Sequence to fold (313 residues):
Amino acid sequence: MAKPPVLDDIPAFKALPVQRVTLGRAGDEIAVHVAGSLAGGRPAVLCLAGYNRNMADFTEFVPLLHRLLKTDWPVALLDLRGRGRSSKRAQAGDYTTTNDAHDVSTVARALGIGSAIVVGQGHGGQVAMALALERPALIAGIVLMDAGPTVTPQSLVRLRSNVETITGFRGTGGLTSMLRRMMAANYPETQEAELDKLAARTHVIDPDGRAVPLYDRALIARLSGFAHDDVLEPQWQFYDLLRHMPVMLLRTELTDQLPQAVLEEMMRRRPEALAIAVARQGSPALLDRVDEIGAIAEFIRRTAAEAQSSRRG
Fold:
């Protein structure tokens, strides 16, 4: 049997060196990549990836954001428990949005972050909303990407089905082609080499031709009870916790995670929120284009200025 990969040596992670924050007992750790200086008094940008994804989804985001902001704004990328280089949870049932929010709050305290603009994709956005309940004073603003008060059962079933297919396949060439096809549905204008990079953020192919997940398999096991025709009730009370915080909403054109009707209701409840459509992409957003990142950069500038003005007042 092949040895498990050394995570820090995986190509997707090499550009993102991390420190590990212990959450309580030895072995319970969150991996954090910090770019820029946390000591400048500006609200840090905390980035949280999707359900089974990790900080590598923000690889292009950080340098582009710094270029557009023309400063080394403090940015912290977190791997939630059971993803990337963070430790797994002891029990599958402990993988909850509220537990993840508690971890994020603990990491922020450990890093000395007292104010943050939270950028969350998918599940990461739901964690951001739960953080508004866990520790509202931490949040200066929130950017939600393909994230709202509910998730579609179709997206959960698709994720589960894709992982089951990948897990049961063996053979390097065929597996690479399969991963490309799965990715291409969400990124029809993306070249094969870039699709391979995307796939390598959640799986590595071992010498035996098997896909090794870069997340705890228990996360997928938790999706076993969902069916396509399930109806999941939106938890609007979590979204409404953001009513006193600046909010920015992004939805990718090809996502199946955030229904257009839910986005419209989110905008109705927060008509002043900036809403951006990301063309010809699905979840997660690639975060590599000037238009979208420029809008996020402006939101960060404005939110930080409003927070500073409020403190002075």
